[in-house]
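B., you asked whether I could sanity-check this one before it goes into the benchmark set. Here's the sequence:
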Amino acid sequence: MSSTPLPGIGVRYDLTTREQRRLSVVAHRDGSRTLSAYRKDDPDACALSVRLTSGEAEALIDALIPKHRSPSLLSTTELGLVAERIELSAASHWNGRLLGDTRMRTETGVSIVAVLRRAEAIPSPGPDFRLAGGDTLIVIGTREGVEAAAAILGRE
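And here's what the prediction gave me:
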């Protein structure tokens, strides 16, 4: 997957599939998307181009990545890493405690890359960051590590 900024328009994302088919999506600044598929015998010839509203694009995403997957999953990589949201409940054992007290990286190998609190994002919180109920932690690690982190953070 590659991306190309289109000044004044948005960003174009290009993907060549395993079958050597070329697809592109232009993410327009207004939220709409243009999905294009190119001919197999001539990868420069567009065989299909469809303009989607932002709602239609969301519906297509839902079809490609069904809702039955974890709603907290943000992304996965070919390297086996996942980025996920973990919400800290108001009744959590960690409510009001320091992030370092969780020993998250030592115990799970997971990195907490940000904390979302109300409308604010706190990037790269340090060990002296005080957690609060309702915080959403953005974590990155292996699937097993993220599951262990969720279990630790879910402690009441």
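One thing to flag: The two ends are 42 Å apart (CA to CA). Otherwise nothing jumped out at me.
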